[in-house]
Every structure is written in C-alpha cells, then in structure tokens.
C-alpha cells in the first residue's frame, strides 16, 4: 500500500535500506524538542526488534528519492482487572526540518490510521502536543478511563478509535512494549 501526496511525496513501508536515514531523521527531528530525551532514534531501533513491531506500520515519506518523514505504530495493550485489550501506540512521528509545516506529518499520520484500520486495529494511543493531535480525531485518553504507567499531563495523553465504540467499556492502564523503557 502506497500513497502519493501532491504528486511529489510518496508514503510507503520502511525497508531495511531506509533504517540509517530514518535513524538520522528521527535524531534531527527531535533535537530541539523541549519534552524529549533526544533518544527517540534508539527507541525506533529497539522497537524494530520487539514483539510489538509491525513492519507494515513502519512508514516513510519520500520526496525526490529522499526520506523526509517517518511514523511508527507499535502493538500495545490496555490492561484492566478483566483482560488485555490490544491497541497501538504512535511513536514517533518525525519530519525533516525542511519539510515541517508542509503536511508531511499529517499525511503520515492519516495514512498510518488508514492502514492500521484496514489491518483490523481499532485504536491508537499517543502522548503528544495538545493542539496537534485533536486535528486527527484524537481525544483525551482520560475520557475513556485510559491512563499511563507514568505521569502524563491530561492534556497530552490521547487516544483515537479507528472503529466506532472500540473502547466502549475498555479502561485501564496502557501497557507499552518493554522496549519503551530500556535505555
């Protein structure tokens, strides 16, 4: 599955040959982020080796044969006393500085949503900017009774239902792949 934006940017699955460029792209995209440990590029490497990794949901945006954007969705779960409910975590989204504010990140997120939905996934959780993610339909995770295993300001914890009522009656703690917590 591929998508073309404005006839010039193509979104496709990441392949092994992309990984060095993705590492650099993610590093550069987060270098000035205030709320970052500036190690997201290493998280991506760990997640690729995890049980939660879904190759079809590791996506790159290409412009003139150059990778200018990246998004990764990884399997996670919402855990309560009764069960584990499968969800996805969106992390990270990275766009080359020269291509920021030009719709590349939005296109990657929208394409990732569409692809995840077609693959049968029903929801995605993210910690992110309070003004950015609601544009895509994300709502506060607290509205659904979903909380994080560490402190997250309510205005930064989000979830989106890719299937109507996917999270009806589902509440609990988000269980990330262990690779999110390794150094």
Tell me the domain tally.
Answer: 1
Oligomer: single chain
Average residue-wise pLDDT: 93
The CATH architecture is: 3-Layer(aba) Sandwich
Low-confidence stretches: none
Describe the fold and architecture.
The protein is an alpha+beta fold and about 180 residues long. The longest helix is centred in the middle third of the chain and has 15 residues, at about 105-120. About 35% of the residues are buried. About 20% of the residues lie in helices and about 35% in strands. Strands 1, 2, 3, 4, 5, 6, 7, 8, 9 and 10 form a 10-stranded mixed β-sheet that branches. The protein has helices at about 20-30, 40-50, 105-120, and strands at about 5, 10-15, 55-65, 65-80, 85-95, 125, 140, 145, 155-160, 170-175. It is built from 3 helices and 10 strands. The protein has one domain (about 5-180): Gcn5-related N-acetyltransferase (GNAT) (Aminopeptidase), CATH 3.40.630.30. It is globular and about 50 Å long.
